[in-house]
Amino acid sequence: MTEGRELEPRAPRCRPQLTWTDAAGTHALELGEARTAGSAVHCELVVADKAVSRLHFELDPQTDGLWVRDLGSRNGTYVNGVRIMEARVPAGSVIRVGTTDMTVSFGNPEPIAPGPPADAPVSFGALDGWSASMREVFATLSSLAKSESSIIIEGEPGTGKKALARAIHDASSRAGRPFVVVECAGLPSQSEIAETLEEALGSAEGGTLVLDAPAELPLAVQRELTPPLDAKAFRVIVTTQRDLRRLVNQGAFRENLYFRIAGATVRVPPLRERPGDLVPLLERFLGDQASLATPSLVADLARLPWMGNVRELMLYAEQLRSGDLLRAVATARLDAVDSDDSRRWQGSEGEHGTMEAPTLPTLLGTEPEAADIGRMLPVALEPWFLIGFKEFRERWIDLGEREYLRRLMLRTSRSSGAASREAGLERTYLYRLIKKHGV
Fold it and tell me: Taking burial as the number of CB atoms within 10 A of a residue's CB, which of 24, 90, 243, 349 is the most buried?
């Protein structure tokens, strides 16, 4: 599986030191891994300050220094007097949360090496990954599988969260016992939610219960989940696209439920953050037609955002194998143009970035006349206008719906409530569209 593939080198990671004084006294801490910090007593780093939110911010030591991320706190997070959403903190800086100042230094002369060991697995269950970040995910989950810890698997759509949950179950002592998945976002009514959860809780006894998108559950239902989870009759794995810590601060997710499921949190990186996986995965999906992955095609694909991640790449490969090149091109985002600055990720106050795509007026510098729009369509769409009207309409609507939903969910940070309100759709119908298009 790994023949001919060079594994990425392990870069050194800085080991930052923090000192601060709060209501509990003076503290000094050396950070070796990411920690959630706040005033809640169950936080990995507790700051005794009434002006600090329960889950206030995250400290994350990386290869390029210490990163600080605000988690939607009510009073904000400041670095050297500047309010930030996310920032890399240099030595000597002061992080202010509430009324507490935390001073940052890098006193350890020997940097530590992050990431997986050289012999870390390049697969886990049904998933493959050769990049250092995915090998680290595999190594971490493989280790966690041997424990009884609850796990949150966080990642964008199409990154394989539920497949990883299955792999954890299969590698655990509970393998062979029930593996029950509850799609929380697909339960339209309160009565159906209660009935489904009751059945799932009973069926999962002795095995593994997977809660997919639990943030979609009403707060009253979240409260009712707490006693069964305390009973520990099964292992709980949560898969989510949203940062539940931010939702706790917003009052949209119950704090006591969060701490019962957050035994360990693993983030699955999106495909665009691990470009080294693009070619081997594409070749794997193409199978005996791997020669279709020409250098020019790969260069084009590397510029795409892959918002659907590995699932989108798999669909692209299937359509490429079938010879439906037009649909493959459409799947790979026809609105991407050959310009480095035509798309960019920019930070937002939600947990996801916002994809900013150029509009027609932006590209032209002026509002186009209706007659000019036809000349601006991608060349790859031209053959669509030579087929029967019925097939053309189906292709056009399919492409339009998929793009509309993708942009809608990005704008609303994948909040189904906000998306349904903005689009004027019933939430159950929105769920069906999302499932249909794999958004």
Answer: 243
